[in-house]
Amino acid sequence: MESRNTNIFALIDKPTVVIYLLLVLWGWFSIYAASYNYDGTSIFSLDGRAGKQLLWIGCACIVAFVIMMFDTRLLEAYAYPIYAVTILILILTIFIAPNVKGSHSWIVMGPVSIQPAEFSKFAVALCLARFMSAYNFILKRPENMIRAILIIVVPLLIIILQKETGTALVYLAFVLVLFREGMSGLILLAGIGSITYFILALKYAETYWGITPVGEFFVLLLTNIVLIIMTSSKYNKRGAFRIMLYITLACALVAGITNIFTPVNWAYTLYVAIAINSIYTFILSLKVNSAKLLQPIAVAILSIIFLFSVNYIFNSVLEPHQQARIKVSFGMEDDPRGAGYNVNQSKIAIGSGGFLGKGYLAGTQTKLKYVPEQDTDFIFCTVGEELGFLGSTALLILYTALILRIIYISERQRDAFGRIYGYCVASIFTFHLAINVGMVLGISPVIGIPLPFFSYGGSSLWGFTILLFTLLRIDTSRTGRI
Asked: Which of 90, 197, 228, 446 could form a disulfide with 158 if both were Cys (CB 3.0 to 4.6 A apart)?
């Protein structure tokens, strides 16, 4: 009979381990390329970042091995204590961490600095899986939904207090897990709508058509469209759609006639249309005695409230450097020497790589240090410059394969705990990949999050390793043999 340890490593998902090793090694070589300065420093030298990363990789392998020795029942049993301890550490970090580039998120222990926020993702994933896998759990129950959201929001808010807004935003990825487990599509729609409204209201805040603010007009137009679609779909009669459309056209006609004599703010016209359509929807809800028809009205009201809060969120919640990055990303400002410098140099580096790239250690933009943070948050530009479109595509395919494999592993779990935890891991990796590559290419704001297994740093490498290998350990026990 095989030993327990032999069984574990015989059952481990080998394709996932291979992809993990490929990404870690590729990342190690890329870190060396990004920090190479023509002085002949060896890739193994501890004086360079590649040598230090090799130490982190070695420690990560030990961490992975230790995780595989754990009993999965302990992970589930101690999920809540792990979460509680993590929250306490995050709070403590605010007070004991030194100021590093404006944030208080790194605990310094001699020559080593640890960022607890990187490990708290694991604690949240474990806690969510434990909570949502309880017997007879139904996410749609209001009390369950509130508790699940609190599990996500509490560390998010603490990390914002550490002045690490970028890292905090990663926790929004857990919403995808809630959606997979039965969360109403309305909440996902609200999230997508909020992002869309925020971009429109902010990007066109200072643009006017006559006396009509364009940003406000676009948001209200979308709000009215959503109100009409939601009402007609829930009432399930074509007449509702036509009547609400006629109401909107009638308001536009009155405003158009008025505009002949005096300038009209078309945003006010949409306020009137939304108000009348909401009253009509309310009358329908009374007619058919359906509370569901109150949802479109609630969405419209919340949309308008959110519209008025955009300026406050942007000017009072976000830091000045974050405001500048968002403005550059949205094309509101052109600041190639300031907030837009990183992205501008990154795009130059990637563009100069062409189809096949300049060759390993042959990139000029990265070797001459034109791209800041090129071995951490902007390491993807090193791949783009040296290996070109072909190498960048290969890397993205490798990441996609990893995420799809994680989803496959999640779906084959026999219990809800393993499935939910797996989707937490998939959501985190997907968010990191999309945002990191997006900010390097200039299609998303620069929020400073690492590329999994690729960017330099022990905290991020260990954090992602713990996330992944905990899933692999859970997967080995799905047969019940170990």
From this structure: 90
